Amino acid sequence: MDGPVKRARVNAPGGAYDVIVGAGTLPMAAEMRGLLERDVSAMIVNETVLGLHGAYIRSCFDGLGDFRTYVMPDGEEHKSYLHAERAFDWMLASGISRRSTVVGIGGGVTGDFSGFLAALFMRGISVLHVPTTLLAMVDSSVGGKVAVNLSAGKNIIGAFHQPALVVADVDFLRTLPDDEMRNGLAEALKHAFIGENALFGLFERGDFDSIKSADNLVEIVYRSAIFKSSVVERDEREGGLRAILNFGHTVGHAIESFLEYRGISHGEAVSLGMAAELEISVRAGLLDRAHARRCTSLLERYGLRTRRAGLDADGLMAHMKFDKKTSGGRARFALLSGAGAPVYDREVPDETVRSVLIETLASGG
């Protein structure tokens, strides 16, 4: 190990597990030796990660059981129901059984896809997450939400399926491009905005270059895991409080599905979504403009976009109707009512939403 190892314990109703965070922590996957040796395991690994870190991954899992490897291509478009059906056929042909474990190694797309396969295959088998991007480490690997996309919207087909273990090895981030780093920072900034005050202070003290130190990255991942787990433990299946984690995502997911998951990253979409929803919070009378500007300034400090021109506001609103948070044909928003004070399940008049979308995403530039 190249530094201290931190553990966040997630005590979700669907299963308790550890999130292990540090530099050089992947060998600690050996803690799951019992699960990995019960039967042949399915290793779902991203193709880019395999090319960059294949030797390291193989050395860490050597001797821990018999594995079959499914290589997951890059791109959100591959996290689809069609690709999942193909993967299920591969699992059956590979001898994966009810005693097997799925090991997902890659970013958020690979993690969501792996968890979805594990949740549905033979009514549910174990999954071990090894997130390799900052986005996956701070967000999708923790909490048990797994899903695939339909053309109408993101994460429409899914389940709640908690992992057996999450190993967040920040050594993987050494090869992460800056744009991918910003993807993760968008979700970590979301946690800072909705109540993780230690992260808010860390981001205000730092900048994009300083935040990439190993110590800061470990702290960001650990703090995000602690914060998210505190929410998930109280509301595993998003019946209420967990909806605060959707801040920025009602608009963000609409952008992604409207663009058919091409030409925009999840982090960029969420950043644009947060900027729009900060403005919606102001116009709804919940948030003072000074704090909204404080938040958008932080997004901009870390190279995240807060405005974009050329998107169709009515098209975005149509895609919001397919969002899981929609009720009665109207989108329900997670918004801010103050610093670290989120509210959820808020209905906003269509004319307010449309005017914000026009200003920030249609003609914003």
At CATH level 2, the architecture of the largest domain is: 3-Layer(aba) Sandwich
Task: Sketch the major β-sheet.
Answer: 7 strands, mixed
Number of helices: 13
Quantity of strands, as a count: 11
CATH T-level topology of the largest domain: Rossmann fold
As residue ranges, the low-confidence spans are none
CATH class of the largest domain: Alpha Beta
Note the overall shape.
globular
Strand proportion, as a percent range, falls in 15-25%
How much helical structure, as a percent, in the residues? 40-55%
Q: Give the terminus-to-terminus CA distance.
A: 45 Å
Side-by-side strand order of the widest sheet: 1-2-9-6-5-3-4
Order of helices and strands: EEHEHEHEHEHEEEHHHHHHHEEH
Averaging pLDDT over every residue, what do you get? 93
How many structural domains does the protein architecture include? 2
* C-alpha Rg (nearest Å): 20 Å
Name the descriptors.
19% strand, two-stranded antiparallel sheet, alpha/beta, Dehydroquinate synthase-like, alpha domain, Rossmann fold, 365 residues, globular
How would you characterize the overall build of this protein?
With 365 residues, the protein is of the alpha/beta class. It folds into 2 domains: 6-175, Rossmann fold (3-Layer(aba) Sandwich), CATH 3.40.50; 239-365, Dehydroquinate synthase-like - alpha domain (Dehydroquinate synthase-like, alpha domain, Up-down Bundle). 44% of the residues lie in helices and 19% in strands. It contains 13 helices and 11 strands. The N and C termini lie far apart (45 Å). The model has no long low-confidence stretch (mean pLDDT 93).
